[in-house]
């Protein structure tokens, strides 16, 4: 009972904060007399969102599916690479510094290369979303697998367990909390990737829509695009958080201690 | 009473009557400049069904010996035979428990204990064939034996250190091993819990009659549990002394206060203190990495 109250208080506080920010934004624009060419008010943005929704919707769908395809491919590749690198000490020691180096390259810099190879359109957006997701997942999964307690590995080996037995029964489940932490980071990064690619080289997607809207000074529509992106990002983040809680609840035992 | 120490064995060793036999087996970790001899060539025999304790200063190669027997490590020189075969090819089942219980936090105690049944044949095949209820009963019986009856549904974090260590013992025993390797399993427990677990361990051993190698810091523990105690020197480890413990079983905590027991303890203690001071850490490369 106490816990439910706590949740309401927590969620209530963050809802109040969001509403507060919007109210402040609205009032600030009104009182300072800021033109909607510079910074439209939240009410204007929502109005634009409703007014242009039939036009916005196809772009939303485009961005959502390119992001999800790129993200899915990135997750699969990242998971496999992470398992590979985490399972071998040699691979871990040699590949880990390389990975950290690679992940510090701004991935959006590769968009022109993808455009060069595949032309403008959906493919560069998918690939950018993919490549931007891979690194956090590889690094996290490899860490989770490589940090299995050596004693536990010894116990498994004296049972004559195969590498596969150890991976399936110990390393992979143990890496799951790391994997989900990476997923939540990766899904937001994937949106960054696909939207940037759309902005640079596509005639579809929210990124492209925002580009066109800004060149015609339809600033409320630009912000409407931002709102759509924020909504998609939050929705997917929440989705993965929920799956995470189901799958790796054991790693957050402090929170379910009260309910147990 | 001393075991032969630095005997060089012929390359092809034959005829092994003991259950475990070390023939001049040594271990050197690392290569070239950084090579460290952890274990000097050692010979040691353990009979089937025997309970042998290894004691000695820390870093002297006790865990290294266990790792060889558990086929985790091949000797740098010499040979190690288990059940008549050179390690790497032994057909026996082994159970192992460390001080760190390493229970899997996402599984309850029952499933944790069941883990070896998923891996070790012939249970592995049975597990595939969904003989899970049979295995559950098996786990439940063992949990009862160590005083964890009814805790099968609990998760590791809901258990005290002593209870986790009991579950760890169960995991090492569930697949009916021929050989049990214990590396300071009770080292992190308080005195009373430890004594409780000694009694449980003794009962388990008396009922199953399996071969046990126990590494411990606690001389009282060694004398309470073992048939034989091997005392090792500081690194590179050698077996300095190998004495039988001639105290009737089942042993009790009260017996540990009797003169025989106390005398044995004192003798072992003097030997280990000597081993530490004599060739111990102090005389080794000052300023170098200590173990
Ligand atoms: N993997 C390793 N690499 C290098 N040195 C090791 C390794 N494992 C153990 N050693 C060294 O070998 C010696 C014996 O180790 P160990 O068998 O663990 O001792 P203990 O008797 O305390 O169990 C120690 O000095 C330790 O530092
Ligand atoms: Mg040790």
Describe what you observe in this structure.
The complex is a heterodimer of chains A (260) and B (291). By secondary structure, chain A is mostly helical. Chain A has a single domain, classed as MetI-like (MetI-like fold, Orthogonal Bundle). Chain A has helices at 2-32, 42-51, 53-87, 89-103, 111-118, 122-146, 150-158, 163-201, 206-215, 219-247, 253-256. In chain A, helix 3 packs across helix 9. The radius of gyration of chain A is 22 Å and the shape is globular. Residues 255-260 of chain A have low confidence and may be disordered. Chain B has 291 residues and is α/β, with parallel strands linked by helices. Chain B has a domain at 48-63 and 93-276: P-loop containing nucleotide triphosphate hydrolases (Rossmann fold), CATH 3.40.50.300. Chain B is 33% helix and 21% strand. Chain B has helices spanning 62-69, 109-119, 123-128, 132-145, 161-173, 191-208, 219-225, 259-278, and strands at residues 20-29, 36-46, 51-55, 77-82, 85-86, 94-98, 179-183, 211-215, 228-232, 239-244. In chain B, the strands form two sheets. Chain B has a six-stranded mixed sheet, sandwiched between helices. In chain B, strand 1 (20-29) and strand 2 (36-46) form a beta hairpin. In chain B, helix 2 (109-119) packs across helix 4 (132-145) and helix 2 packs parallel to helix 5. Chain B is globular, with a radius of gyration of 20 Å. Chains A and B meet through helix 7 and helix 8 of A and strand 6 and helix 2 of B. Magnesium ion binds next to helix 1 of chain B. Adenosine-5'-diphosphate binds next to strand 2 and helix 1 of chain B.
């Amino acid at each position: 009972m106490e816990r439910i109250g706590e949740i309401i208080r927590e969620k209530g506080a963050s809802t109040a904060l969001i509403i507060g920010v919007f109210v402040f934004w609205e009032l600030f624009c009104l009182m300072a007399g800021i033109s909607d060419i510079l910074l439209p008010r939240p009410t204007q943005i929502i109005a634009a969102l409703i007014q242009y929704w039939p036009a916005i919707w196809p772009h939303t769908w485009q961005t959502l599916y390119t992001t999800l395809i790129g993200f899915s491919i990135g997750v699969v590749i990242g998971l496999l690479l992470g398992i590979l690198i985490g399972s071998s000490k040699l691979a871990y020691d040699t590949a880990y510094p390389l990975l950290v180096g690679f992940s510090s390259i701004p991935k959006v810099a590769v968009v022109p290369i993808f455009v060069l190879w595949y032309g403008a359109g959906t493919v560069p957006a998918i690939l950018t979303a993919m490549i931007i997701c891979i690194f956090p997942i590889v690094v996290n999964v490899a860490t989770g697998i490589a940090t299995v307690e050596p004693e536990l590995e010894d116990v498994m080996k004296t049972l004559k367990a195969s590498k596969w037995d150890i991976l399936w029964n110990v390393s992979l489940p143990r890496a799951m909390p790391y994997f989900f932490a990476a997923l939540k980071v990766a899904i937001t990064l994937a949106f960054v990737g696909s939207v940037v690619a759309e902005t640079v080289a596509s005639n579809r997607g929210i990124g492209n829509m925002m580009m066109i809207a800004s060149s015609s000074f339809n600033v409320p529509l630009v912000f409407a695009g931002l709102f759509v992106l924020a909504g998609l990002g939050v929705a997917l983040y929440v989705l993965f958080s929920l799956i995470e809680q189901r799958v790796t609840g054991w790693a957050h035992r402090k929170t379910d201690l009260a309910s147990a | 009473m001393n075991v032969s120490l630095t005997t060089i064995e012929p390359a092809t060793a034959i005829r092994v009557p003991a259950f475990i036999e070390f023939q001049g087996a040594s271990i050197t970790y690392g290569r070239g400049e950084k090579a460290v001899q952890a274990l000097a060539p050692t010979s040691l025999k353990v009979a089937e069904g025997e309970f042998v304790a290894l004691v000695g200063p820390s870093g002297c190669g006790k865990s290294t010996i266990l790792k060889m027997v558990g086929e985790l490590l091949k000797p740098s020189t010499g040979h190690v035979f288990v059940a008549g075969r050179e390690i790497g090819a032994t057909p026996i089942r082994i159970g192992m428990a460390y001080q760190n219980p390493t229970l899997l936090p996402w599984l309850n105690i029952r499933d944790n204990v069941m883990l070896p049944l998923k891996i070790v044949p012939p249970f592995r095949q049975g597990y595939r064939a969904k003989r899970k209820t049979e295995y559950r009963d098996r786990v439940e019986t063992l949990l009862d034996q160590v005083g964890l009856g009814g805790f099968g549904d609990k998760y590791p974090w809901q258990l005290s250190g002593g209870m986790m260590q009991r579950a760890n013992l169960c995991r090492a025993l569930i697949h009916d091993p021929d050989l049990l390797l214990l590396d300071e399993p009770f080292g992190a427990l308080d005195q009373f819990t430890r004594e409780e677990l000694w009694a449980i361990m003794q009962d388990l051993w008396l009922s199953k009659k399996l071969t046990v190698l126990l590494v411990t810091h606690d001389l009282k523990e060694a004398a309470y549990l073992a048939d034989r105690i091997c005392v090792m020197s500081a690194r590179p480890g050698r077996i300095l002394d190998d004495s039988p413990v001639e105290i009737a079983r089942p042993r009790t905590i009260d017996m540990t206060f009797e003169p025989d027991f106390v005398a044995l303890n004192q003798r072992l203690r003097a030997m280990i203190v000597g081993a530490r001071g004599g060739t111990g850490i102090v005389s080794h490369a000052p300023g170098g990495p200590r173990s």
